[in-house]
Amino acid sequence: MVCLLRDIGEVPKSILFAKTPRLRIPGYSWAPASFPRQKAYAQQSVTVWADGSSLATIGPSGGLMATYGGLRFRPTITARANTWYLTLRGDENSKFSAFVESRSETEALTLESGDEYAILAMEPLDPEFVYFGALVVFCHSSASECLRARFVRLLLFHQVADAKDGHFESAAFTYLDEGEFPPVKAMCDLVDENQSWCIE
């Protein structure tokens, strides 16, 4: 698969959001173990094989180079959880929820307080919809002009429509319980949709 990807040189940006097993090879944490079919993609609104403006470049040593927007955050404590509530720094009324799809104990994630993370999205967020976001962890040598990160997994990702008095309230989540672990809260910053990334 790695040789094929190197020969192709370009893939759709939306490949980052495919619901498929990934390669466990340095530089290719983002890469599917095999090319997914259309129905494997988490966001059906995304065209799988899109025009040139929606293509990502594959580096000679791996790495998916493309632009994505989203949220970046650093946990204040190391915690294992199914759900994260994120508040936009400087705007306490802008809140987001990200959660593991299955919400089971085996699927819960441990996020380290010493690491920085981002949840990347293909499209601008609309409070009416739930999206799949790509959770990535920053590489320590990341440069400001092109952020370097490693793919972790997909998360469901939602902008909370009604946030009042520090509480997260949204009709989209009334059917969800808290799962095996309590939610973790953190402050976050917006990532511009034109930010360049190298996902290793």
Essential attributes:
mainly beta, seven-stranded mixed beta barrel, single chain, 1 helix, 200 residues
Short description:
With 200 residues, the protein is mainly beta.
Structure, explained:
With 200 residues, the chain is mainly β. The chain has two domains: 2-67, no CATH class; 69-191, no CATH class. The protein is 4% helix and 40% strand. The chain has one helix and 15 strands; from the N terminus they run H-E-E-E-E-E-E-E-E-E-E-E-E-E-E-E. It has one helix spanning 2-8, and strands at 10-12, 55-58, 64-67, 69-73, 79-81, 83-88, 95-99, 109-111, 117-121, 130-138, 146-159, 162-164, 167-169, 184-191, 196-199. The strands form three sheets. It has a seven-stranded mixed β-barrel with strand order 4-9-10-11-7-6-14. Strands 5-8 form a two-stranded antiparallel sheet. A two-stranded antiparallel ribbon has the order 12-13. Strand 10 and strand 11 form a beta hairpin. The two termini are 15 Å apart. The model is unreliable at 40-52 and 170-178 (pLDDT under 50).
